[in-house]
Amino acid sequence: MENIEPVVPPSVTPRAGPGGSEAAAILLMMLGDAEAAEILSHLDPHEVQHLGSAMFNVADVSENQVEQVFNTFMTRTKARTTIGFGAAPRIRAVMEHALGAERAEGMLARITPPTRSRALDALRWMDARTIAALVEPEHPQIAALVLAHLEPPIAADVLQLLPAEAQPDIIYRVAKLESVTSEALEELEQILIREGARVTTTPAAARGGASEAAKIMNNMRPGTDKPIIRTLAKADKQLAQKIEDEMFIFDDLGELDEKNLGVLLRNVENDVLIVALKGAEEGLREKMLGCMSARAADSIRDEMAERGPMRLAEVHEAQKEVLATARRLADAGTLMLAGRGDDYV
């Protein structure tokens, strides 16, 4: 009788255990409604959306996968300590005991990490149109406070929905904003209460400045930034220049195509370029040198090597000079800066 080989089923590669958002979703769904809601209340809007989607994806999770998630959770939990829990009251008590109440308060004001206001957190759940309608009738300082605490793309959307004549003043106030007083937060709270959103306030938090204003401006529609900068320059030329500098940094030159980069390099003195490239990222440096002849690029590299280490302030000054040249050429229509709007097409 002929031997019949047994049929061996193909091996099945076991599916890896859930991780990331799926694991978090499984843990959350194993909790009661109140506990799960408490955890969700501490997350950002995009995190809640991401986690909510994951909860639908794990509806048919197996018992073995749930066990894997719990094992991973317990392993990581055991590796954590509780040293940071409730640390703030103890640090305050130690400081007051060592320095006295008045000196301790001054020290803590300088070293305590800033805390977000729940008043401002509530705004992050609103869409741009709602926020714009909320702040438009208010003092421009309130609008600046709100914009400085939103993500730049959302803040830009809000700013564009506000009256054009108010936009330069609001950007000016964002750039000058350094801290948020409790009085300002209380006023913002009252505005939100009128809209049906009850929130509480916390101590002052640092935010704003020229960099924050520049991020908002960079996210506006192409061509809408220049009128704001021009109007702002009439009120504070130095601040307008600082915002414009933040909007266009040396690394942005990497976005230029070879033709425009070549135009720029032909208008920059070699001595300035050598110093500027000393502080450039390698990728940008090689891209710029690649727009030159091999002989010219080798000459620049040799000069950079011969000069040795240079002061950072000197490098930044040279890079500012290159950027100023780029802006001048762009304003003249000789150069097109990537992403800088309708002024340069």
What does this protein look like?
With 345 residues, this protein is an all-alpha fold. Helix content is 63%, strand content 0%. The chain is built from 20 helices and no strands. The chain has helices at 20-29, 33-40, 45-57, 63-78, 87-99, 101-111, 118-123, 128-135, 140-148, 152-161, 167-176, 182-194, 210-218, 225-235, 237-247, 258-266, 270-278, 282-289, 294-307, 312-331. Helix 5 crosses helix 6 (101-111), helix 9 crosses helix 11 (167-176) and helix 17 (270-278) packs across helix 20. The protein starts with 19 loop residues before the first helix and ends in a 14-residue tail after the last helix. The model is unreliable at 1-15, 196-204 and 339-345 (pLDDT under 50).
H/E element string? HHHHHHHHHHHHHHHHHHHH
- How much β-strand is present in the residues? under 5%
Mean pLDDT: 75
Largest sheet: none
Low-confidence stretches: 1-15, 196-204, 339-345
The percent of residues in helical segments reads 55-70%
Counting DSSP E segments of at least 2 residues, the number of strands comes to 0
Distance separating the two termini: 86 Å
Derived from helix and strand composition plus strand pairing, the structural class reads mainly alpha
Shape: extended
Number of helices: 20
Report the C-alpha radius of gyration, rounded.
28 Å
